[in-house]
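The records we work with from here on pair a chain with its fold. Here is one such record, which you should read through line by line:
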Amino acid sequence: MIILISIILSFLFVLYFTTMSPDSKLSKQAIDRIYENSKIKKILDVEHYHGEKSYRVIEAETANQSGYFFVPDETSEEIIFVNKEEGITRQNAKEIILKEKKDIEILDIRLAIDRKKPLWEIVFKEKNGQRTFFYITYKSGEFYKRLTISN
């Protein structure tokens, strides 16, 4: 019986610390911050973006609009909000890169931010194995910057 109780307690201990990882705690803090500062109706998604600074990108709906909150992990930094209707979609970002680059394998498309400018980060692999991080502006889809990592 003591062994069974020990196993159950060990499982609960691991489960607690797994769910309360630093990433989970930072996401919860970010959500709490936007609830304090905005009239959030619904949280749709939370992603992590790490560029020069680390952010939680929270897709949410308010009473009036739907959009993305860029919440810096550093709590003294300001939260930036962009309305979904004022920018291009993930699908638009994908179409833009596929028009410019042929024969690539898209690995990821996610929202990003650099110097308080919302972006789409498109990560792809070229035939030669190079991995490229291609950034376009959220509002218009214009080229912002590119970083390439060679093998």
